[in-house]
Amino acid sequence: MPTRILPAVGDADAVRSITTLLSQLPDAEPVAPVVDSTQLIDTLARLAAESVDELPEVVVVHERIGPVPALELIREVALRFPAVGVILVTTDASPGLFSAAMDSGARGLVALPLSYEELASRVQAVAQWSVGVRRHLGHGGDVFTGVGGTVVTVSGAKGGVGTTLTAVQLALAAQASGRGTALVDMDLQAGDIASFLDVQFRRSVVDLATITDISPRVLADAVFRHDTGLALLLAPGEGERGEEVTDRAARQIVSALRSRYEVVVIDCGAQLSGAGAAAVEMADTALLVTTPDVVAVRGAKRTVRMWDRLQIRKAEETTVVVNRHTRGTEIQPALIQKITGTAIAQTPVPANFKELAGAVDAGRVHALDNKSAVKQALWALAGELGLVKGVEGTQRHRSTRSRGGERAALTFRRRKELGR
Q1: For the whole model, what pTM was predicted?
Q2: DSSP structural state of residue 285
Q3: Cα separations (Å) of 49 from 34, 43, 66, 252?
């Protein structure tokens, strides 16, 4: 059986030299190369959607692939497509880089300039490994095989605008429609999802922060299965531990969840952290919740501008949700859209605190009456976003996960360090 090899190379000259050499390997079947990290992930996802057997046995990643750095790209491929063996092609064959590549999930490293003998040896070994993994998959191995679910982040223009309520109800709507859903509390210092759902659980997102290989079993140990069916990944009980969740850890956690669940809803709160920045940047849909008052709308505008400056997300790629909306208020959704420069959710959420107070105080937001106007609006919003099975979203923004790669988190860290 021929070995299918997918080159991921951005440089035109490097593409020619690598594909020429690959075509000379015995029993090799090079496929059309991909030129950047986004195209690689999309290509593998499309093939995996058909069958694991449709995936190439070997992916060759050039060190200058972009925009996502090569090692981060290898880590995502290894996590999402474990039946694919990855070889890194690099000018730096030092033990340090070799160790880093192996830690990221690469199965081999080949030094530039390419040697036929070395490349042939590595490709053969990695192909044999890939075939072995696929046999394991055929017997129900405990590995990720998902193409990747939808990630939605919910952030607040300021505290108290209804961010957590929105995140919880969107997740409940998706789960109720039959889609496997995870709800993540990435408001690391002041997360309230556990209180809203009356949950006491000793594990949190911090337990995954130092794990470089998040297997399904490890992930299952960290999440709490709620009575509603939601998989909850909670914020730490001690807020100071939130700093343990770095932007890199957040990327790995979001990637692991995306591979395991059809829908991942992340409550990012109103304060931006490196982990929150990484989540917003990776999201398919980024929601920003505001209320129709001057202070909150100003906060929304500040947030949108900050995300743009830090290259986290552009204004037009952000959707604002208007909470506590009334027809009589002076500030209407159209005005908010004009002020922020964002998209605006077509479904505003009405103001009706009385019907929420009892459920919030009792920690039973999931038990809101179906006649609740707030619940009806938020579940309609879930349909609008395409989170409900069988409903196509009108506001859903597919991710360009390589949009700036790690630039957002790196820029955030530099700004934070300068401010100290």
Answers
A1: 0.66
A2: E
A3: 18, 10, 24, 21
